[in-house]
User: Fold this.
Amino acid sequence: MPEYAVVGKSLPRVDGEEKVTGQAQFTSDLKIAALLHVRLVLSPYANARIVSIDTSEAEKVPGVIGVYRASDLPFVEPDSGSRKRDFMARDRVLYHGHPVVCVVAETGAAAEDAVGLVDVDYDPQDAAVDLLLSLEPGSPLARGEKPVEASAEAAMHGGGASGETEEHEELPANVSSNLHFTRGDIDAVLAASDVVVQNTYRTPMVHQAYMEPQVAAVTIDALGELTVYTSTQAIFYTRNEICAALGLPNSKVKVVSMTIGGGFGGKFMLIEALAAAVAVKTGRNVLLEYTRMDDFLAANPAPPSVWEVKLGAKKDGTITAMQAKVIFDTGAYAGSPLSIGSLLLGASYNYEAIDIRGYEVLTNKTPAGAYRGPGAVQAAFASESTVDMLAEKLGMDPFELRQKNGATEGTLRPNNVPWPKIGLAQCMTELEGHYRALVAKKQDHGTIREGVGVALGGWPGGLEPSTAICRLDADGTVSIVLGSVDLSGTDTSFKQIAAETFGLTPAQVNIVRGDSSNAPYAGGAGGSKTLYTVGLAVQRAAEDAKQQALQIAAGMLETGVDDLEIVEGVVRVKGVPGKQTTLDKIGALSMGPGAKQEPVYGRGSSAQANQSPAFAAHTTRVAVDTETGKVKILDYIAVQDVGFAINPAEVDGQIVGGIVQGIGQALYEKMDYDETGQITTQSFLDYAIPSAGHAPTIQAIQVEVASDWGPFGAKGVGEPPLIPCMPAIANAIADAVGIRPTSVPILPMDILAGIAALETNGKH
Amino acid sequence: MPEYAVVGKSLPRVDGEEKVTGQAQFTSDLKIAALLHVRLVLSPYANARIVSIDTSEAEKVPGVIGVYRASDLPFVEPDSGSRKRDFMARDRVLYHGHPVVCVVAETGAAAEDAVGLVDVDYDPQDAAVDLLLSLEPGSPLARGEKPVEASAEAAMHGGGASGETEEHEELPANVSSNLHFTRGDIDAVLAASDVVVQNTYRTPMVHQAYMEPQVAAVTIDALGELTVYTSTQAIFYTRNEICAALGLPNSKVKVVSMTIGGGFGGKFMLIEALAAAVAVKTGRNVLLEYTRMDDFLAANPAPPSVWEVKLGAKKDGTITAMQAKVIFDTGAYAGSPLSIGSLLLGASYNYEAIDIRGYEVLTNKTPAGAYRGPGAVQAAFASESTVDMLAEKLGMDPFELRQKNGATEGTLRPNNVPWPKIGLAQCMTELEGHYRALVAKKQDHGTIREGVGVALGGWPGGLEPSTAICRLDADGTVSIVLGSVDLSGTDTSFKQIAAETFGLTPAQVNIVRGDSSNAPYAGGAGGSKTLYTVGLAVQRAAEDAKQQALQIAAGMLETGVDDLEIVEGVVRVKGVPGKQTTLDKIGALSMGPGAKQEPVYGRGSSAQANQSPAFAAHTTRVAVDTETGKVKILDYIAVQDVGFAINPAEVDGQIVGGIVQGIGQALYEKMDYDETGQITTQSFLDYAIPSAGHAPTIQAIQVEVASDWGPFGAKGVGEPPLIPCMPAIANAIADAVGIRPTSVPILPMDILAGIAALETNGKH
Assistant:
């Protein structure tokens, strides 16, 4: 491996100081003059006709500017069925939390007061709540007669799943989309298998639980031009959606990315068009800031799902077939990760035969959004739990079964597209000793039973074209100009990539961004693609700028470009000590009156054609208290193929953070609905996320199977840490107490019930 | 000439709507939270030691945050002698209006009240006031013992004058710089001339009289990063100067160009570092907004000058020699246009011998700045008046004398550098009929005498590297991203250049800008260089983007790039009707998840190595009332070589506007000082600028001698209209009443005195 000066080092984050000192500017920190505050009246029903709305008392509240229904606002696509372009209810509400009326007032308090005075007369209808019941004939229709749209958003975060076979199948009325992946003769292969196991798994709706609720501030000028300040993960997508919603040309809307207080896939764009519509309606600057309760009721959490999985294998442990049915409950609008989830379900191992059917079901619940590793996290729980069942039935070591069958380069995925080079085997090799050590270490203490689990999973990695700029400045520093959002520390890595490429110290590189009107294009920060795609553009921009600088320096030093090198910002003639110049001198020759050289302005673009999928393998040792059902995680070791770690400390941070979220999903988190479709978890009092005290010490181990395409061999590292987490914990619990968790979160009462059932069945 | 679809047409200005409807955002329109207001205590003396300053009463005014001297503020270059980096007085004041103390308060009114309570004890000194007296031995020293700096700013607006001979000459103590241009044996050539004329001219200090006084708003965040909103003509220069003044890295200061309410050279950077210093000192957002009186006392007006000019000629009208002495009164800091003025003085005609000595003199007056056609305007007055004297003495038609001797390609300038291709002769040819018609038309009416004048002048044109971006957007429009300031309508021309080059309608092109942190580099908007330099970068960026788009389209349409054309945004296969695609489709293939093409992101840079000088020739018919001395302009016809008019209506606007300013300088405008150095013109009550009623109908005629270098053959058009204006009017007055104006403004009382003197001498 080449010796690098800047990449591969754990530099401090560029956004560290402002965040640690509390100076980072979040959207709601903006001081905007003459700001109106918007509060929403949310539907208390999951499915109801709106009979009438009386806003007269609300309008009387001092400071209230207006009380608006959807039809009062300048949305131009009222019947498109797109939630983002028509955020509020019209003639009926479709989920508990569906915004019905927005109150606009000079102060937040006035708006809040007025919200309580809006009188909406609803005609409640039976709601489609449970995803399985919603597939039954005669079940309530979630969307009534409304047409169902296909959503583009799933592709925003997706790992590029495509190629599924589509066939004409008679579908229940609430199904918004379906797919079918097949390979081989599934019935014959299963029949020929020595062992077959099957099980059904459920995952609940979970919330991204970002610290900063959804927020958007919109300023408007007298010519109707809008500037939208938002913690979006994707400024260009948000701009496009706002323009589509309001029928405005792109030139009239500028989206500025603010510091983002956590996104995890949930902030691609949600309330921005509504805030913009209120600004257009009132001609005033507007702040729409969700309360935490708004965010639980009316944001875009990860959707519930059901997975029926059947696996076959030969006696020797060769896995033969997967047959599965995948159902995602997308809530009131389409947009679940059905496609990527179904694809990844059958992608971690070699299968002779595949038969996976997937269904997206509309219900009267909060519509689905993306959440880190969308679809993959749920798929891994189903797949990796069933693989453990197979190991048990085969009497085989679960680690060995995985090693024997794990996907490698060329393994066909369910869409029959082979994996490119992947590092799954290397992760397993690296993990094995740790796994064996945990197994050796586990021991029971009275009613406390210990178990060790292993699980794996991968993420193909998103792709999106992007451009970056590397601009030499008059003081000899360079600025990297970006249109991407720094969701996860990518700015620091970009600084390192630019410094390494150009031959600078990190202090000589500034990271700056533009807004959607003037920045180079970049896709949304999601799908583990920012470093992989924008990072390559940064590398190319820095190389382009370096060549321009060398060209000028060659003239100054009367030598050829090839004889020059740049080290820590000094341009030197190789082998001629002291014959050198500096970048500020090159700046002076290319910027300023009468200067003779063109400014050094490097451009780099990327349109990655190839994914560099990243796998992870986890092992954990847990202790289960058989008297209380409580699970304690004792050890957690994660191995991940990161391609090349531009900044190892940041990659560690991604891994550890992802695992803590995975622990939350495995053991604590669930947005719950009652049978009428009422959300019963409306705050962090009801919705449990892990605190620092719940997080064990996590050992993150980076394996580097270099990507052929990413900058310096790097791969996206954001999604994978979360993917094997739930099944690793579930498998450890199964190992400890002999019960197979089939739904998450794995709650103490479920464990106690499982233990009781085992005892009843005499198996314990 | 090729047929163009968009350039060469008079499209409406892109900034028209927002300006006509009053919606343009000027710096003082910004709504900035928690804003402090700064007011300045200005020196009432031209030259004084500061004995003591008592701020205690001022500090007691409610709302006052601080009362600061220069030494209280974080300037790091207190002894550099740079006015811009150390704007306030330290131990002595150097001019009437020199800021001594700044008062910072929560409201403008509180600051204003406190200003009146600051008690400064001055020890007044004799002041250097008159520029000639200041050259005398023993005259007061304008700067005491302070070192005198060379100023970089003159180069910012300059037409690229350079190459003057410098020699060691014993200089008076107040001289800050000098130059000497020579060619041939001046004494011998003058001695061999048949006719010699000579005269001395004075021009006064004049103010740019922009509608919007100097203003800067600075926001500061808790990490000390500054954003400076200002009506600067040059965002990068301003950023660099602020950083130098405060010792900050470039990355800590961002300059945002606001709508500019007139600049004319006077807004390259003045008060911005002071405003920034106050923001750093207080940690608060700050607005420093000049009153009109502040702007008269403490801005940067055009400097006074004296011109001694001697011309020789042969009997046949061949001009032989110019000997001249040029003195610019730069006020208390160096920075006059001595170099460009001295160069242009001897550049309009062929001279066998040249001997021009130039001196920049420091006095205790408001320091000099640039004003449209700096140096050139004064030089033309001196040169063109003397040429008319020569015509009279030769008994030759003044138009013919100019045609016979006028500079052409290859004519040596005083620095012995030949003119490149110029259009002076073409302008004169175009003007001749108009001049002859005015001469034929003139007639006296009793005490009203009419006269016709002619004059010419040119401007070499500034050069500065620049970069521009042409970005395809998702909706199929393109955005031109710029770091230049739109001072004079250049944005509209850029839109046309981009549309023509790419094959778009103007509506498909957006003009957007970045700030100094993220925009492509561009020089200051001045010196008639923006269209010529940035315009070329725009053309190249659009061509680059077009080629990228064609490459993608070729793949879509399965054809070669060469077979494609873009017409009004539609990419067509030439000769195959209906085989076409659109830019939004190309956008969809290059932006968005999974898109396979790199974003279309064109970059263009320019580093013009060659000037494309632009000449103008004016004629005017005036009526002089011999009883009142009042001058009325009856006809005004201006011919200007514009290379190629990208937008003819805008070019007309430049010409007409420049001439109205020239009429002001010829007849009305003067900043006056008494013998102690007190400014006696402190408002528009004392300082007369022409109103609409003073402006005649002006006929602007465009001649197009295409530049080999500018976009579509365009040349800079901003400075030339003002240059021949004063001498054309002076020559017309001389023609009418037989007196030779030797100073401007040419006031009625001076004309009456001249007429009286003529009558006394029996010449009338």
Q: What stands out?
A: Chain A has 18 helices and 26 strands. Residues 560 and 723 of chain A are 51 Å apart (CA to CA).
